[in-house]
Amino acid sequence: MEQIIGYIQAGTLQPGDHLPAERKLADFYQVNRSTVVHALDELVSLGWVIRMQGSGTLINEGNWGRSTMPRVDWRSFFTQDSSRKDPYAEKLQQLLPDPTAVDFYSGELPLSLIPDFRFPSYTWEELLLEERKQGALGYQPLQQVICERIKREQKIEVSSEQVLITSGAQQAMFLLLQVMLQSGDSVAIEDPSFLYSLPIFASAGIKLYGVELDNQGMRIDKLEQLILTKKIKLIIINPTFQNPTGTTMSEKRRLELIALSQKYQIPIVEDEVFSELNFQIVPASLKELAPHQVIHLGSLSKIFGSSIKIGWIIADQDLIQRLSEAKQMMDFSISVFPQVIAYTALKDPQFEAHQKKLVQTLRERATDFEEQAKCIAADWEISTICGGMYVYLKWKHQKLTRKDWDVFIKQKVLIAPSFLFSSDTMAMRINYTRMDQQNQQLFFERLQKISTELRRK
């Protein structure tokens, strides 16, 4: 078991590869065939392989339900690279510095669109004085501003004791996993979802299960089936301009989700990092609809870029206290400096004007994209862009394999295939916000060539 898992993690065994027959494995390892069968059954239960009648044993093409080994191997614990990227993602990273590549893969706004703020200069002594305003939950002036924004935008009263400042949304997610779950627990997320490939779940021994989406959002009937069969302990959802599909969950579906979570007493974690980038009125947040049932995550990284890693968790005071204690135990302290920058930006009198200008620019880029995309409509089903940063394109023809997507790498078109977010291989996420007129034309020219090549396969 350990050797096969090691080969998978190292990339020696690829998704979809066949393992040798049971008899051959028994001969190779010099053990009884029943021992091999037992080991393979364990690997199936841990999600590493699948066994198909008539097809033998294959390496699982997805991560759904995958878990760590049933015991801790301390030698491998300190040597394995838990953050190992998908081989395709590694190829994308290698191409990012290439000036001839067009990048619609990165999950950030282009630098030219990030709002420009003038920050007051601080002496070292002044920063030390600001440090005194830093409590266990974060920089208190920033907490207060977040409370004001939540009240104004989501119509709910939140006190500073209900806001924990984190170093970005991923740290917030990690803290929640550590405090609310135990190794072996199961979590439901959307299928597809940006959470699919994050290493924090495997590191914590948490099993992920995907719930199918339709045009209204996560399917509640499919979620209930998972709750009953997989003993789901937590639901994590990105309901507004979902990453990667751009789907926004309808208000009716949000109410159904809340009712289901109350029925089974399962908390919901709501990731709302895109809701401010909207071109139209969006439904009420889950936190607004069920203040005590929902844990709300926010972040400034989508507006200010990843250089300002400031996020927050909003939840009931007792949970925030437990999360704060865990944060201190793990020494996840945050410097006051980025918090002061975030506070200054949010309090800037021009912030609202900058944000409106940004949204207007994104709306124009979305309209331009949808107009230009008519030239590929025969090959790709294109999602409607109502806000957020992404558009999702689904291939209309024959089934694609992972290897087929290498054609994008050859053409130096950097996109995110759906297998980075799911077991699916038929779609891709594009960050349309990175398209100015010049690289948009280049993108569609190359995509037409790529589509012609894919149809020939």
Q: TL;DR?
A:
By secondary structure, the protein is α/β, with parallel strands linked by helices. It has 18 helices and 18 strands.
| CATH 4th-level superfamily of the largest domain | Type I PLP-dependent aspartate aminotransferase-like (Major domain)
Main sheet makeup: 8 strands, mixed
Output the CATH class name of the largest domain.
Alpha Beta
Indicate the CATH topology of the largest domain: Aspartate Aminotransferase, domain 2
Family: In the C-terminal section; belongs to the class-I pyridoxal-phosphate-dependent aminotransferase family.
GO molecular function: DNA binding; DNA-binding transcription factor activity; pyridoxal phosphate binding; transaminase activity
InterPro entries: Aminotransferase_I/II_large, HTH_trans_reg/aminotransferase, PyrdxlP-dep_Trfase, PyrdxlP-dep_Trfase_major, PyrdxlP-dep_Trfase_small, Tscrpt_reg_HTH_GntR, WH-like_DNA-bd_sf, WH_DNA-bd_sf
Pfam family, one: Aminotran_1_2
Write the layout of secondary structure elements.
Elements: H1 2-10, H2 22-29, H3 33-45, E1 49-52, E2 56-59, H4 74-79, H5 87-95, E3 102-103, H6 124-131, E4 134-135, E5 138-139, H7 140-154, E6 163-166, H8 169-180, E7 186-191, H9 199-203, E8 207-214, E9 217-218, H10 220-230, E10 232-237, H11 251-264, E11 268-271, H12 286-289, E12 294-299, H13 301-304, E13 311-314, H14 317-329, H15 336-347, H16 351-372, E14 380-382, E15 390-395, H17 406-410, E16 413-414, E17 416-417, E18 427-431, H18 437-456
Parallel strand pairs: 3-16, 7-8, 7-10, 10-11, 11-12
Antiparallel strand pairs: 1-2, 4-5, 6-13, 8-9, 12-13, 14-15, 15-18, 17-18
Helix pairs in contact: 2-3, 8-14
